[in-house]
Write a structure and sequence with these properties.
The protein is of the alpha/beta class. It contains nine helices and seven strands; from the N terminus they run βαβαβαβαβααβαααβ. Strands 3-2-1-4-5-6-7 form a seven-stranded parallel β-sheet, with helices on both faces. β1, α1 and β2 form a beta-alpha-beta unit. α3 packs parallel to α4. The longest helix is centred in the middle third of the chain and has 29 residues. The protein is globular, with a radius of gyration of 17 Å.
Length: about 250
């Protein structure tokens, strides 16, 4: 029987932080499965870049908030087909608004994608990793899940929930040699921050002791460490990648 290839599943892998994470894990020799809800063409481009650099990667369309579809994906594409070494729950959306004006649908959609979706992927990955008796799960939370942020009650709540999910899963899965950790980025240079005015960007940078916004690669290197052999005795941890703005 052929040995199964160690594989990392990265949700929200079509751009920004997810793209950088996928590339960093590919450099560690992992096959990459990129998951996206709508930007399949962009995810395929990321996969092509990884392949061009000597790695292996594939892209898949999946709305992680659909738990039945998520279960089917792990059953059909992962179980007994690859060695599921790493899951990175990075998929996320924003629908900002003040609490007094926030629509029910906007609150629910953000929680469904950012928290419920991560739970579904974690649960299905854990079933497979438990049989393998090894695995790394890394959830991408946020500084606003630790500090809160006006206008982001839904996003902050989802990201705070991810921290609780991480710590609970770490306790439940440690006996199967599965580590579960979180990375909490601060203000990172992404498509979301690219639309901000220069004055707003300077105001953000002024809040950061290191004096600059982070790069997606800063987050990716933290994820790569938690996925590496050197992090084998770390679980239930929240690693802040925020330039010192909130510790």
């Amino acid at each position: 029987m052929n040995e199964l290839r160690p594989t990392a599943v990265v949700t929200g892998g079509s751009r920004g932080i997810g793209k950088a994470i996928a590339q960093a894990l590919a450099r560690q020799g992992l096959q990459i499965y990129l998951i996206c809800a709508s930007r399949l063409e962009a995810a395929n481009e990321v996969a092509s870049e990884i392949i061009a650099n000597g790695g292996q990667a594939s892209a898949f369309r999946l709305d992680v908030s659909d738990l039945a579809a998520t279960a089917a994906f792990f059953q059909e594409e992962i179980r007994d087909k690859v060695d599921l070494a790493v899951l990175v729950n990075n998929a996320g959306i924003t629908k900002d608004g003040l609490i007094l004006r926030m629509k029910d649908d906007d609150f629910d959609r953000v929680l469904n994608v950012n928290l419920r979706g991560a739970f579904g992927c974690l649960r299905e990955a854990a079933k497979i990793m438990a049989r393998q008796r090894h695995g790394r799960i890394i959830n991408i939370t946020s500084v606003v899940g630790q500090s809160g942020n006006a206008g982001q009650a839904n996003y902050s709540a989802a990201k705070a929930g991810l921290i609780g999910l991480t710590k609970t899963a770490a306790k439940e899965l440690a006996g199967r040699n599965i580590t579960v950790n979180a990375v909490a980025p601060g203000f990172i240079e992404t498509d979301m921050t690219a639309v901000l005015s220069e004055d707003t960007r300077k105001a953000f940078a002024a809040q950061i002791p290191l004096g600059r916004l982070g790069a997606p690669e800063d987050v990716a290197e933290a994820v790569a460490f938690l996925a590496s052999p050197g992090a084998g005795y770390i679980t239930g941890h929240v690693l802040a990648v925020n330039g010192g703005m909130y510790c």
